[in-house]
C-alpha cells in the first residue's frame, strides 16, 4: 500500500511522504487564501470555505483564521458557525452535525503520533475520525482529541480537553474533560 492508502485506511503512515505532504500543502494554500479575505466580505469567505470543506449545509460561517490538514475530510451540517482561530487536523474524517457553534481558538485533531521513540523517529502518524452531533456548543480554547464522538445537545466548557466520548445531553469541562451535569 502507498502511504496515502495507509493513511486513508487508518493505519500508520509516513507523514513526510510526498503525496501526503502535497495534500497538506494544497490545503494550507487554500486556507491561506481564505484567511486573506476581508472580514467585511462574508460572501467571499463562505464561497472559499465551501471550496475547502468536503461538504457543508447551506448556511455556514467560519471566521479567519482557519487551518486544516486536508479540508475535504471535514463535513459540516446546516447552521455551522465557528469563531476565530479554528484548527481541524482532518487526516481522518471530521463529521459535524447541524446547529453547531464553535468558540475561538478551538482545535480538533484526528491525527496522533506513536508513543514509542522509534515510531516518532520514523515520522509515523495514525488517524482516527471525530464525530460531533447536532446542537453542540464547543467553548473557546477547547481541544477535541482523535477518535472522539460527541453526542447531540452537548456543551464543551471553555478550555476543556476532550479525551473520551461524550454522550447526548451532557455538559463537560476540565482537563481531561469530565461530566459536569446532564442538560
What is the CA–CA distance across the termini? 46 Å
Helix count from the secondary structure assignment? 4
Radius of gyration: 16 Å
Q: What is the string of SSEs from the N terminus onward?
A: HEHHEEEEEEEEEHEEEEEEEEE
- Spatial shape: globular
Mind summarizing the main beta sheet?
A: 7 strands, mixed
Could you list the spans in which at least 5 consecutive residues all have pLDDT below 50?
none
Q: Report the structural category.
A: alpha/beta
- Mean pLDDT across all residues, rounded? 97
Fraction of residues in helix: 10-25%
Strand order of the largest sheet: 2-5-8-13-16-18-19
List the helices and strands and how they pair.
Elements: H1 3-8, E1 13-14, H2 18-35, H3 42-52, E2 60-62, E3 66-68, E4 74-76, E5 80-82, E6 86-89, E7 94-96, E8 101-102, E9 107-109, E10 111-112, H4 117-121, E11 124-127, E12 130-132, E13 137-138, E14 143-144, E15 149-150, E16 155-156, E17 161-162, E18 170-173, E19 178-182
Parallel strand pairs: 2-5, 3-6, 4-7, 5-8, 6-9, 7-12, 8-13, 9-14, 12-15, 13-16, 14-17, 16-18
Antiparallel strand pairs: 1-11, 10-11, 18-19
Helix pairs in contact: 2-3
Structure description:
This protein is α/β, with parallel strands linked by helices and about 180 residues long. The chain contains 4 helices and 19 strands. The protein has helices at about 5-10, 20-35, 40-50, 115-120, and strands at about 15, 60, 65-70, 75, 80, 85-90, 95, 100, 105-110, 110, 125, 130, 135-140, 145, 150, 155, 160, 170-175, 180. The strands form 4 sheets. The protein has a 7-stranded mixed beta sheet with strand order 2-5-8-13-16-18-19. The protein has a 5-stranded parallel beta sheet with strand order 3-6-9-14-17. Strands 4-7-12-15 form a 4-stranded parallel beta sheet, with no helix packed on it. Strand 18 (about 170-175) and strand 19 form a beta hairpin. Helix 2 runs antiparallel to helix 3 (about 40-50). The relative contact order is 0.11.
